[in-house]
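Researcher: Here's the sequence for the chain we discussed earlier.
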Amino acid sequence: MTAAAESTVTLDGRFARELSELAVPWQAEEAPQPKLLVLNEELAGELGLDAEYLRSTEGVRLLLGNHVPEGSTPVAQAYAGHQFGGYSPLLGDGRALLLGEVTGTDGRLRDIHLKGSGRTPFARAGDGRAVVGPMLREYLVSEAMHALGIPSTRSLAVVATGRPVRRDTMLPGAVLTRVASSHLRVGSFQYARATENMDLLRRLADHAISRHYPEAAQADNPYLALFGRVVATQAELVARWMLVGFIHGVMNTDNMTISGETIDYGPCAFMDAFNPAAVFSSIDVGGRYAYANQPVIAEWNLARLAEAMLPLFNEDQEQAVAPAVEALGMFRRQYSDAWFAGMKTKLGLTEAPAGTTEAEEASELVDSLVALLKDGPVDYTLFFRNLSHAARGNNRPARGMVLDLAGFDAWVERWHDLKPDADLMDRVNPAYIPRNHLVEEALAAATEGDLDPFTRLLEVVRAPFDERPGLERYTEGASEDFGSYQTFCGT
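Model: Thanks. This is the structure I predict for it:
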C-alpha cells in the first residue's frame, strides 16, 4: 500500500452499528506537530496494513485519528465499572476512541483504538491526553506479554503529538494506537444492565458470542455458555500472570475483557523479589490488587459480570441464580488447575496422571517451593532461570539465592527424583522481562528524546526465552539505590 492507495485502508464500524447505545461519535484532538516514535511493523503486517504508508504523513495522522478514512466513524465507548470496589454507573472512554475494526490477514476482526486522543463526553475532569512515558510503557509491556505467550492487547504505534501536557510537570504528549480482539469488558455489561434496556443487554451478549465464542451460540443456554467461557478464559489468563510474576495494578471491572486479553498497562509491573503482598500502583494504597489478590479479584469481577447478565440466564431471576453460581464456582478449580500445571512446567515436570504418586509429589514440591521463596527476597524470574542449571546438575546458582539452605537441599533432592526437563524449563521460564528499573530508565530517556534505551529493551523482551551473550544486565534485578518502586497510571 502507498499513500496514493489510501482508500484501501478500510475501518469497519460493527461495534458502533450493532451497539449504538454504547457508542458516541467523536473526533480526535488535532495534534500540532505529530512525530512517529515507534511502529510495530510485524503487527501492521498481520493487520494487512502497509508499514510504509503508516510512516507517511497521512499514515501518522491516521494513527492519531486526525485522518479518518472515508466511511469510518470514530466513537467513544460507554461502560460502567467497579473501581477499587466502588461502583461508577458511567465511566466510558474519557481519553480514547475506537477508530473501527479491521480484518487481519488471518481473517480475525480486531479493534483499532486510540489512547490519549483528547477529551470525550466521558472525560469528566480529565484533559483526555496522554504523555510519552506511559504510552511507551504500554507498548513495551504489551509486546513483552505477547512474547511470553500471554493473551494481550497489542500496540501498533506511539505518536508524539508535539503538545506539552501538564502532569506534575509539563511532559511531551503522545497517543497510543492499540489493537485488541475487542474492547468489550465486564463494565460494558454493567452499563447495559444499569440502563434496564434488556434488548441492549441481549444484543451486547450476542455481539460478544459472535465475536469471541461462536460455539456458545449452539448451547442450550447461549448466554450461560458465554459466561462460562469468560470465566474459563479469565482463570487461565490470571494464572499466566501469576506464573510470570506480573501485577496488573488496576483490576477494575472496566479493565477485565470479555475476550480474555490483558488490557490497560497503566500502573503494572513485574515482581523482582518474590512477595505475595507486592503492590506497585501509587493509587492502590490498600493493596486491593496486590500480586496474591489477583485471582480473588478476578473471581469478584466475574461475580459482577454474572449479576449484570442474570436476566439473560433466565427470565425468572430466582431461577437464574443457581446456574450462575455454579458457572462462577468453576473459576477456582480452573484457576488452580492452570496455575499448578504451569508451575509444574516451570519446574520441568511433565504432567503425571491425577492421583498418582508422581502427581502428588509434584504438587507437594510446588507448595514447598513457594514456602521457600516466601522466606527471603528471592528474585522470582532469575530463580526459575537458575533452577534449570540445577536440573543439569549445578545447584549453586539457585541455591545461592535462598536463605534456608537445608530446606533447599532437601527440596532439590526430591525434585531431582522426578527427573526435571531442563530444556522444557528454558522454554517456559523467561530470561528477560521488562524489569522495573530498566523500564524506568528507558522511559526517562525517551521523555527526553532518546529512544535508544527503549528500543534496546524492546528488542530484548521480544525474545524472552533466548538467553544471549552481552545482555547480562537485562537479567539482573535493580541495585539497592533504586529504592521502593511505584507506578502511576499517567492520567
